Amino acid sequence: MEIQxxxxxxxxxxxxxxxxxxxxxAIKAGEFVAITGPTGCGKSTxxxxxxxxxxxxxxKILLEGRDVSEYKSDELARVRxxxxxxxxxxxxxxxxxxxxxxxxxxxxxxxxxxxxxEEVANRLLATVGLAERGNHFPAQLSGGQQQRVAxxxxxxxxxxxxLADEPTGNLDTKxxxxxxxxxxxxxxxxxxxxxxxxxxxxxGYAGRIVKMLDGKIVGET
Length: 221
Hints:
This protein is α/β, with parallel strands linked by helices. It has a single domain, classed as P-loop containing nucleotide triphosphate hydrolases (Rossmann fold), CATH 3.40.50. The chain contains 7 helices and 10 strands. The strands form 2 sheets. The chain has a 6-stranded mixed beta sheet, with helices on both faces. Strands 2-1-4-5 form a 4-stranded antiparallel beta sheet, with helices on one face. It is globular. It starts with a strand and ends with a strand.
């Protein structure tokens, strides 16, 4: 994934308000990158662009070398569904579906073979340490367990990149550490991860930290 001189400008009445100002960022396959900065600095806007959910006002977003502006809308939806996994702060699990059904849902949407759906969902549930909780509903799980289910669901279509927006924001320290341990293991197995966080302790799990302020990248460590 590569961002080239990306700007995002919103029109507010008579004024143009820049959310991103000339962002350049390259993310290599297999990296674990944390994007940090204060509220309103443009972190979520940039993550939305990396996830192909938004387009820059000007500049380019390249996914595996191809400018995403070249994709038709239906093609872009397939790219998002299969190449990019998403993990959100609020879990976003379907309360009326069991744990295993939540994980299976993306594969059903993208019409995977039924035997593959069952095998992959069970494997992913074991990967996040919840093999015995497949028939539980989200309300029967702790917050940390719900987020682990959300991580498993994000991996169901075997994406090449995982995007996480404040994945530990609603969790206590212990549960947050457990989620980051899952991320570290997945990254060690080759998964590319880009994570937004305001917590520098959580950012420290990443291999690279990108710091943002006022819509600009102001440093890296």
